[in-house]
Amino acid sequence: MKHILAVAAASLAASGNAVMAQQTEGAAGGGRASAVTAPVSIADVGAVSPALAAFIQGRLQGEVWQRPQMRARDRSVVTVAVLVARNQPAEMPAQFALALDHGLKPAELSEIILHLAFYTGLGNALAAIPAARQVFVARGIDVDALPAASGDRLPLNEAAEAARAAGVQQNFGVVAPGVVQYTTDVLFRDLWLRPALVPRDRSLVTVAALVATGQVAQIPYHLNRAMDNGLTQAEASELLTQLAFYSGWPSVFSAMPVFKDVFAKRAG
Amino acid sequence: MKHILAVAAASLAASGNAVMAQQTEGAAGGGRASAVTAPVSIADVGAVSPALAAFIQGRLQGEVWQRPQMRARDRSVVTVAVLVARNQPAEMPAQFALALDHGLKPAELSEIILHLAFYTGLGNALAAIPAARQVFVARGIDVDALPAASGDRLPLNEAAEAARAAGVQQNFGVVAPGVVQYTTDVLFRDLWLRPALVPRDRSLVTVAALVATGQVAQIPYHLNRAMDNGLTQAEASELLTQLAFYSGWPSVFSAMPVFKDVFAKRAG
Amino acid sequence: MKHILAVAAASLAASGNAVMAQQTEGAAGGGRASAVTAPVSIADVGAVSPALAAFIQGRLQGEVWQRPQMRARDRSVVTVAVLVARNQPAEMPAQFALALDHGLKPAELSEIILHLAFYTGLGNALAAIPAARQVFVARGIDVDALPAASGDRLPLNEAAEAARAAGVQQNFGVVAPGVVQYTTDVLFRDLWLRPALVPRDRSLVTVAALVATGQVAQIPYHLNRAMDNGLTQAEASELLTQLAFYSGWPSVFSAMPVFKDVFAKRAG
Questions:
Q1: Which residues of A fall within a CB distance of 8 Å from C127?
Q2: Contact partners, residue B138, CB within 8 Å, separation at least 6
Q3: Type and span of the H or E element at B108
Q4: What is the pLDDT of residues B155-172, one digit of tens each?
């Protein structure tokens, strides 16, 4: 089984094939199999919309994924974030495998799913578990390769975090003290400091999820944070190109004025 | 089977375990089985993200669900509303069972699904049917325990309803007469008056669904209605804490300014 | 199998039955079967909420679908768009079959899925493939009946398209040049000109998807375009009635002020 998937993965890496024929298997290694929805093959797509099959194999895989403005590994990060944010498990096995082929580490994929448990809701992260487990089992990735619950944390920028916390406390400390407390304790003093995914990549995941879920009001803070964390404006711009295809034109057109405003204020 | 699930339910009640290993079964009692997506076990989660498994079993179940600001039964109502609003059937069997263990009546769960057919769309309610049926069958709950289509209704506050209807008619009577008519006939003169779920709980379900689906513009009317129906400000605030984990931080941060404004206006 | 489905389809056409008992089958014709989630039967619904079952069979199918303000074929277009936009595959086989029974051509259904790949994201379109393939196989519809990737295009209104492109270029040409380029090349100079779905129907699909996904900011442009493409105000209004039931009241109430504004500006 590993051999077959390895071949499929090699073929994926060569073709950038995001829609692949792949046998569904229960996650091995335990007595009970989690369900993984069967992926859609390009032949299935062609039997419903020849134009969509041609578009995927042509313009999308042959051109968009090859654009130099963003490397394939980051396009995979964005695409994975959209699938989790939109709760679309069918494409996850192929896109998770493709992400690993593009150089994403298993520990990073694990951490992206953890991150999105908080930024898209627990149910979305749980829906990604069977597909991730299937890919990890198929590649012989075991728990030793994954980030532990505890361990070292990145150094905290105390001044910046104090300013953030004070602002949120002033705004919402009375309205929602529980949210304010966990925002500090669980997110900014723990999740964001976990070293298995660098802050720039956490930001990339977060901003992609915000666009994909239409949470436009949260984009200014997180896009600024992303650029503070090292995402370039060219990458932020190309993020929108990738999202247009994977999360749809309307979500991107609703986000573009906010991106424009953030870019302008940082330049001004 | 009933015995096994009863044991699992007892274990759930003891642990607040939101992610459980549970055999999937077709809904019994009929010739055709509706599909119930297999739930994700905590072992599966741990095989992908040890940190997420530790978080669920520790902070989430051990601390958040135990906070005194909202009783477990109401946390279950909120969590169930998020799963239906977000169309996440995999977690439904465990969370529906947990809700019943927390004291939610089967008739109330039935009514929550009916309510969300109108407040999140018919497709979302239908996606919750197989899991609800599975739990009802496993516990020997038959249709006699569930609210009938017709029957007694709660008394209508005629003055308040007349004011609501007049406002909507003036605003949208020409733009969308069909919507205006059904809003009165189907929602406010029927659904909201069904006695199997008290108005305060309908409001709790509605506001949770609005936050989970990003329908921020509809929060002011429904949060005010919820508080008129008896939801306290402390409960409304803690609703946001529960939602942060189950529907994600961005949805809560987009809702907090609206909650703040409603709280301020009611206090002022 | 075809005979059984044809009978079911006839019954659907007679009853407007949106929830039907139907055997799930793997998509035939290939070695590998794509997964189609089992639909929910009206008996399943009745075993969870007798009131919801009665509502579907009574008011929804017996009254709403029969309203003269919009023909059944267009109601099906709207309903199909909601299912794809919301990623709800369980109801797709029955609703796709119903749409064909209401006179939608297979080529039009194929094209709606292609259109929504761009207006709701690729993952949503892919999630619709197994159900569409199942229905096409059951009815003996093969690829010759479906729109090809290339071929003739509708004539372009060069002046209107130049104005649109110039506006977007001025607004976002620097912010997101990739998005701007593909908006012109892939959407407005190709997708919208494909003759298998008339522009009025593409607009109907687009506006329904915008409401169903809460993309309110994109409604003014597309509702105006829809009415320029021949959608009447009475149809646009009734679209909201159909959406209230299938995408939920809050999504419609968030859209109504925007519809009102567009109607007023066109009248003024």
A1: 40, 88, 90
A2: B1, B2, B5, B25, B97
A3: helix B106-119
A4: 999 999 999 999 999 999
Best C48, C96, C242 member to test B by mutation, with max B CBs in 10 Å, is: C48
Residue B56: list chain A partners with CB under 8 A. Answer: 122
Could you state, in order of their start, the residue ranges of all structural domains in chain A?
A: 2-153+190-267
Question: Among A60-64, B70-74, B249-253, C1-5, which stretch is predicted with the lowest mean pLDDT?
Answer: C1-5
pLDDT in tens, A147-181: 999 999 999 999 999 999 999 999 999 999 999 99
Contact A112, A205 (CB under 8 A): yes
Tokens of A265: 């204020």
Backbone Cα Rg of chain A: 19
**Long-range CB contacts (within 8 A, 24+) of A215-219:** A215/B214, A215/B250, A215/B251, A215/B254, A216/A254, A216/A255, A216/A258, A216/C217, A217/B216, A217/B253, A217/B254, A218/B250, A218/B253, A218/B254, A219/A255, A219/A258, A219/A259, A219/A262
Cβ <8 Å between B251 and A215: yes
* B neighbour chains, 3+ CB pairs within 8 Å: A, C
CATH of domain B2-153+190-267: 1.20.1290.10
Closest to B129 (Cβ–Cβ): which among C40, C86, C251?
A: C40
In which band, very low, low, confident or very high, does the pLDDT at B39 lie, cut at 50, 70 and 90? confident
Using an 8 Å CB-CB cutoff, list chain B residues near A119: 248-250
Give the whole-angstrom CA distance, residue A266 versus residue A215. 21
> What is the pLDDT, as a whole number, of residue C183?
98
Structure confidence at residue A76 (pLDDT): 98
CB < 8 Å to B257, chain A:
171
Nearest-by-Cβ selection for A218 from B19, B253, B259: B253
Q: Residue C252: closest CA among chain B residues belongs to which residue?
A: B179
**Which chain A residue's Cα is nearest to C106?**
A48
The dihedral formed by the CA atoms of A107, A112, A117 and A122, expressed in degrees to the nearest 10: -70
CB burial of residue A35 (10 Å; 0-12, 13-18, 19+): buried
Angstroms from C223 CA to nearest CA on chain A:
13
Minimal C-alpha gap between A131 and chain B (Å): 10
Determine, for residues C49 and B175 on separate chains, whether the beta-carbon distance falls below 8 Å: no
DSSP state of A105: -
**Contact call for C177 and A21, based on CB within 8 A:** no
Q: How far apart are CA A93 and CA A20, in angstroms?
A: 9
Please report, for residues B15, B63, B190, the alpha-carbon distance to residue B31 in angstroms, rounded to integers and kept in the order given: 35, 43, 33
DSSP letter string over C26-91? ---SSSSPPP-PPPPPHHHHHHH-HHHHHHIIIIIIIIGGG-TTS-HHHHHHHHHHHHHHHT-GGG
Judged by CB atoms closer than 8 Å, whether chains meet at C49 and B146 is answered as yes
Considering only CB atoms, C44 lies closest to which of B133, B150, B209, namely B133
CA distance C242 to B122: 11
pLDDT > 90? residue C67: yes
Considering only CB atoms, which chain C residues are within 8 Å of A254? 215, 217-218
Q: What angle do CA C69, C71, C75 make, to 5 degrees?
A: 100
Q: What is the pLDDT of residue A17?
A: 36
pLDDT of residue B4: 28
Instruction: Give the model confidence (pLDDT) of B43-65 as tens digits.
Output: 999 999 999 999 999 999 999 99
**Chains touching chain C at 3 or more Cβ pairs under 8 angstroms?**
A, B
**Which candidate from C55, C86, C250 shows the least CB-CB separation from B87?**
C86
User: Which residues of chain C does B92 touch, with a Cβ-Cβ cutoff of 8 Å?
Assistant: none
> Residue ranges of the alpha helices (H) in B26-71?
42-48, 50-55
Tokens 């009165």 label which residue? B184
* Alpha-carbon gap, residue C28 to C5, rounded angstroms: 14
- Please state the rounded mean pLDDT for residues C106-130: 98
